[in-house]
Amino acid sequence: MIFGKISNPQEYISHHLHHLQINLYNLKIIESNDISFHYWAVNLDSIIFSLILGCFFLIVFHIVAKNFTLGVPGKLQAAVELIFEFVHSNVKSIYQGKNSTIAPLSLTVFIWVFLMNSMDLVPIDFLGFISENIINLPNMRVVPSADINITLSMSFSVFILILFYSIKMKGTIGFLKELIFQPFNHPVFFIFNFILEFISLLSKPVSLGLRLFGNIYAGEMIFILIAGLIPWWLQCLLNVPWAIFHILIIFLQAFIFMVLTIVYLSMASQSHKDLN
Length: 276
What we know:
Elements: H1 9-16, E1 21-23, E2 28-30, E3 41-43, H2 44-66, H3 75-94, H4 102-118, H5 126-133, H6 148-181, H7 190-229, H8 232-268
Antiparallel strand pairs: 1-2, 1-3
Helix pairs in contact: 1-7, 2-4, 3-4, 4-8, 6-7, 6-8, 7-8
């Protein structure tokens, strides 16, 4: 039973997997029991929590930067400095070249993804109870990275940067040459090369987004299954160990997303080699 409305585990699980959706065509909230297809549906909860977490990240780091001291740092400044050093060391060891954008981008990606993943540790019924009983909203999913629309949006943003730096460093002709002349530099294989390289190029953002979504969605699903299928007095024995293990997943997925972003941009920023 959840909020006095859901009477069986199937309804409980289905309820928690439904987003707070709004139909842009008529600006109406889509109810969870509405199974019709909505082309203009937008997952409003994912967007709201993504923006809130992004603003939280900017505000905290702005406060630290504004109150920065060269003396003995406070706990918050020390934590931020450790994060800066961690990201900087990874960028320095992976990125081949000089680009003032890569480090801030990597920091933003790492912290933002980490914060979105961390929402998975919030009790699944806590914000749901608030949304239904106080704000009067039918559904609320609070883990933006468990929404494939969010993860693919972030990964395709990285993809746009990959294309930008590829064309900037190699030129349009050089970029097209890499798609046509590699890996087999022979006219017979030009079409095959293009298909192979195009698929390889497109697979970068797709795999980047799907990897993050799959791992966080699976973690969220386990929390939902524990809450929906297991008696309340036994849930703590399973939730606590899984939450402790999930902390590692939360950090690891944010780290992988950041590292792959750096790797892909490093590959895109390499100077074009003459293939003629």
